[in-house]
Fold this sequence. Notes:
The complex is a heterodimer of chains A (about 475) and B (about 375).
Chain A: H1 12-22, H2 27-38, H3 43-53, E1 62-66, E2 69-70, H4 75-82, E3 92-96, E4 101-108, E5 113-119, H5 124-128, E6 139-144, E7 149-153, E8 158-161, E9 174-181, E10 184-189, E11 194-200, E12 205-212, E13 219-225, E14 230-235, E15 240-244, H6 263-271, E16 280-281, E17 285-287, E18 294-300, E19 303-311, E20 315-320, E21 325-331, E22 336-342, E23 347-352, E24 356-360, E25 372-375, E26 381-386, E27 393-398, E28 403-407, E29 421-424, E30 427-429, E31 446-452, E32 456-461, E33 465-471
Parallel strand pairs in A: 12-16, 25-29
Antiparallel strand pairs in A: 1-2, 1-3, 4-33, 5-6, 6-7, 7-8, 9-10, 10-11, 11-12, 13-14, 14-15, 15-17, 18-19, 19-20, 20-21, 22-23, 23-24, 24-25, 26-27, 27-28, 28-30, 31-32, 32-33
Chain B: H1 4-7, E1 24-28, E2 35-40, E3 46-51, E4 55-60, E5 66-71, E6 78-83, E7 92-96, E8 99-103, H2 111-122, H3 125-130, E9 147-149, H4 153-156, E10 160-165, E11 172-175, E12 181-185, E13 194-198, E14 203-205, E15 215-220, E16 226-231, E17 235-239, E18 244-249, E19 256-261, E20 267-272, E21 277-281, E22 290-292, E23 299-304, E24 311-316, E25 320-327, E26 337-345, E27 355-360, E28 367-371, E29 376-379
Antiparallel strand pairs in B: 1-29, 2-3, 3-4, 4-5, 6-7, 7-8, 8-10, 9-10, 11-12, 12-13, 13-14, 15-16, 16-17, 17-18, 19-20, 20-21, 21-22, 23-24, 24-25, 25-26, 27-28, 28-29
Amino acid sequence: WTDGELKLEMEAQEVVDLIKALFAESDYRHKAIAEIRRTTLRRFNLSQLVNNLLHNEKAIPFEFLVNGQFLRSSIEEFLTQNGISAETTLNVEYTRALIPPLNVSSFEHDDWVSSVDILSQTSPAGSWSKDGIQSGQERILSASYDGLVRVWNLSGDCIATSPPPNNGGRITSLKSAKWISATRLVAAGLDNVVRVYKYDEDERTITSTLELYNHRWGVEDIAVHGPSNRILSASSDTTISLFSSNAKENPTAPSNLLPTSTAASNKRQKLSKPDRTVPSRGALSTLSGHTSPVSSVIFKPDDATVAYSASHDHTLRTWDLPTSTCVDTRTTGHSLLSLAALPSRNLLATGTSARHITLIDPRTSATQIAIMTLRGHGNGVVSLDTDPTSEYGLVSGSHDGTVKIWDIRSKQYASAPGEGQVGESVYSFDREGAVKMRSHGEGVKVFGVRWEQEVGIVSAGEDKKVQINRSR
Amino acid sequence: NIDPESLLPKLPDPDELKPFPTTCAAIFRGQEGRVRSVSIDPRGIFVASGGDDGYVRIWEILTGRQVWNVKVSDDDNVDTVRWRPGKDSAILAAAAGENIYLIVPFAILSPDVEQASRDLLDAGWGYAASKPSTTANGAAPKEPAARWSRPEKRLEDKGVLVQTTVRSTVKVINWHRKGEYFATVSPRGQSSAVAIHTLSKHLTQLPFRRLRGLAQSAQFHPSKAIFFVATRNSIRSYDLAKQELVKILQPGAKWISSFDVHPGGDNLIVGTYDKRLLWHDLDLSTTPYKTLRYHQEAIRAVAFHHGGLPLFADASDDGSLQIFHGKVVGDLMENATIVPLKVLRGHQVRSRLGVMDVDWHPREPWCVSAGADGTCRLWN
Ligand SMILES: [Mg+2]
């Protein structure tokens, strides 16, 4: 929303109390309070007052938090709705308000786009790259159902496209792609193979350098930890594989999974004439325990020896990678389709087939399943990422065709038992050019979303587009 | 004065019976003409469909993405598609006209799953050539019950590995839970209307020399060696080991379209072209325990959830599906609780045909429907 759009009717005394709570006694505060007494203030003026008190030259829109919850009404209403007596001391904070991320560009593909990743100075792969990524050199990686990965600049020019994989007549639609560094990528999908590619910016080429075999059904998600060269892949075969991005660290590939392993597939493979051979390897370890397809996997943000996974079997699991063991299982009520971590809040966010996002504290005892439930999507929540500038922020992509932004401090007053507190989205946007949005999202389903400081929110979908939304 | 309403047992509130499907989560588009049949694979990842365009198609269940297809017939509809049970292989059975096709859609399979599936289909080739098919009375028939052959190369190259040709158009395929047998129904086939096929031997048997009435559907009992056959007006159960009739159910219907056996084996639902849905408790009576009239037009398909949820669904030519709670209690003294939960609308009615088939996800409270409007829909 734009600053001032919200109608926040407050009594002058309420605003005075807010200012007193937020700022120490000063001439500026004295002047501000005098001004408030003259008019009935709305939010716009309140935000302006804070800017003045902070001596900001350029006005920044602010939001106000009372007892950790967004103030979306007058203080009096807030107290009534939360059942707080007027005598209670309130904890008041201000925070930078979200500036609506507008659609700044869209990149056309030939087929559905299943996944995107961002390479920039502050993105994980950028921070793992020796020389870093200069401003203006940001790159976007996309994975498509046509089986190809592509690298784009922010102007929407496709810099390089991978060669089509040769896999003996198997479908090669991709489900996930990630940057390992500024020069290496990894991608996987319905043909079960995890492929590592070399990306050459000068030559504008993407070359397959390693094929990793361990899955018997499609790969739904990949996670990467650059410094240790580790790759995790989550599969519909109910397992997660741990690989190294360095070919030699991995054992030999299991022969029964290679396209040359059976007479029929070997024959098809030869007919399609591969022009070069790429080394094949197996997995360092297999994480077994889930009983249904695994939709998503991530490394623990501050400890790459730990991984989290979410599965259609309703569980969220914590894995100790050195011993390949499942150390914790949380059971929810629904198929889990996506996963992201809010490390400073000690929370994991998981998107469900039941149209909501569940926040889980992986540390606490299993008695409380959900800390909070974020509601508002009309279909499965299949992709999640964290706000690069706020420890409270999340972005979600759904088959309903929308991308929604959440601040876990934005809560509804009522909640159902077992769900924890209920949160609502602070902003939502559709696919560019989408008309008549329906919850089944036909033609506009969002499959992947990433959020990065410089680039903004990048989302991919059934409309065959990568869409960039950025606050201006 | 007693209010008669107060004497009726109170039905639970649908809100207390969650989860059940309420909304359309995906539309599967890309078929020409009616979609006649849908089947969700045993892992719950893919949906197979068949219809009037002669294609068998496979889709990703969550996204509605078409991942594979083959045109098996230029002239005939694909009337039924059914995945073989079992997670270590992936075999799809489909019928068009007089042909049953056994398919290994290798394009979506890893080499080892493809090989395991091929091995299951290839095992029977030696038998077919050496042994003639027999009828129940052991006499060699004039015409073989079925001809097992390799399909034309175009089909074989797509993974259609076995073609079983029977005497008359096949409308129904149902697998035995272990995947070694499947039953087919050809309503116009008279003495060959119901056939039981043995996968590992490429053998077709015709267990009924003479059926009273036109066969509509047939199914194996979920755990016992019992076989159910529906004709227009009744459903008979047979003991396969003793080769004798066990029971005749009389739903009181003019024309049965379909039935399904509860996973516990003691209850059965029946859908009829005369708009009725009937619940039979096999322990109670040969007449229905409950008759449900909710649809404006014919009911074409009925299905229990087979993955542990107390749910069942029907599909009607009025364009809607209805979802019911159906809880079976093990106690013989207590009868099943049946509660209508939700009407699912979205399919368009075309030429007076609406929803033609419905199948449940193996675990989740999700179902997929097939429509005469050319779409399949996922409901969750
Ligand atoms: Mg009973």
